Amino acid sequence: MGPTCSSPGAVWCSKLSxxxxxxxxxxxxxxxxxxxTYSGEPLHSFPxxxxxxSVALSPNASHLLTGGxxxxxxxxxxxRPDAEPDLLTEGSAxxxxxxxxxxxxxxxxxxxxxxxxxxIKWWDLRSRTVSTSLTFPGPxxxxxxxxxTNRLVVTSGKTVSFIPALPNGNQTHSLTLxxxxxxxxxxPILQDRFVTGSMSDEWVRVHDLSGEERDVLKGHHGxxxxxxxxxxxxxFASGSEDGTIRLWQTxxxxxxxxxxxxxxxxx
Length: 267
Description:
Blueprint: E1 11-16, E2 22-27, E3 31-36, E4 42-47, E5 52-57, E6 63-68, E7 73-77, E8 86-88, E9 100-106, E10 110-115, E11 119-124, E12 129-135, E13 140-146, E14 151-156, E15 159-164, E16 173-176, E17 181-186, E18 193-198, E19 203-208, E20 213-218, E21 224-229, E22 235-240, E23 245-249
Antiparallel strand pairs: 1-2, 2-3, 3-4, 5-6, 6-7, 7-8, 9-10, 10-11, 11-12, 13-14, 14-15, 15-16, 17-18, 18-19, 19-20, 21-22, 22-23
């Protein structure tokens, strides 16, 4: 077992830097923290006025984006951790009209934020201004960046949308499911399927890109808050209200990592 990074409040999100030497976390103790992943020690702690729901590190780990219950998006310069953060707004005191559900960093100079107000905003982080936005008919429940496919995977109501990470004229691919997903993740290599969790039951589902259900995986004992494929697409993880994280093989029975032969998938 590696180093443990301990936070006094429930941790809502965590992200690794590209070189894995640093981790960022946002938590219910109203802070965002930067950690040394080798020692498990906190390097910086940034106070907020409410729960931090999402964090994102820049590609060179020099800056941190945060968002959460305050409806504000902040950008911290990790080279000057004692300096006041930049606040990303459009002339008002807040960044979104609802809780900021997700922040992601795309390329060198773009931050993307999603809120319960149903709006996704692309920010030019050099000028701290919005370059474009996209409005959904209802609150956004999750948004994750798929770096391998260069797409954002967004859930809102019963819809899953696959959106170019940087607006480039390519069309958004959206599907309506018979249930409301809490989170979704696309296969990073094959790009022919995606997995979802849901707050309405305890199952993890696999769909193809037409929306057809391929598989239903049972093992959790509470609603499934989040799902994500591994970078190589060989497995995916699901996190549940039952307090567990389960790992599922994309190809059950394949020898891979800790799986040797016909072990129970998700066990």
